[in-house]
């Protein structure tokens, strides 16, 4: 006899079409104000705020509900220093050999380089690890759609940070194995994203960028009339 799985009723408020239109428009306008910022204040942010942000990210859907993510929350100055040193070492190699000329040209509008002071200045670093498999009494158990699941969780993480009134930077100093070593993570985890979080520095500026318009990112398929 097959095992029955527990299901519970799902209920949520249903809005009118007018209300849905308003809410969707206002949410876009709010989300469109989110920007990647590289200049942080060292102003303290309570840990509970970060915990709520991470709990929000953890509501993301995942393959077979395996939730293949681990979030490491770092505020210790010594650990932040070690992470900065490891990141700058890899970034130096990137900017001076690994990156193509086209890549470097594409980065020029952002005025970035291998020096990453924000990794020490920001009060918090969230280091996201993907769990490529689970260990159950030394037995490996598969996780599914790991990159997709963790990517969705990171998107929700960024919106939760924005919602809290904070700023973030998505940093990927590839390769990132140094994060596994510094933070002593288990063998089933791989670093996925490094996100400094905090308040913006005073008088901070960001590049004057424009997002692609809807007609460049959306293809609409109409119902075809039958002949």
Outline the fold blueprint.
Layout: H1 17-31, H2 47-57, E1 69-74, H3 77-98, H4 101-107, H5 118-121, E2 124-131, E3 133-136, E4 139-142, H6 146-163, E5 167-168, H7 177-183, E6 189-198, H8 214-217
Helix pairs in contact: 2-6, 3-7
What report would you give on this structure?
This protein has 227 residues and is α+β, with helices and mostly antiparallel strands. The protein has a single domain, classed as NADH Oxidase, CATH 3.40.109.10. Helix content is 39%, strand content 15%. It contains eight helices and six strands, in the order H-H-E-H-H-H-E-E-E-H-E-H-E-H. A four-stranded antiparallel sheet has the order 1-2-6-5. Strand 3 and strand 4 form a beta hairpin. It is globular, with a radius of gyration of 21 Å. The termini are far apart. The model has no long low-confidence stretch (mean pLDDT 95).
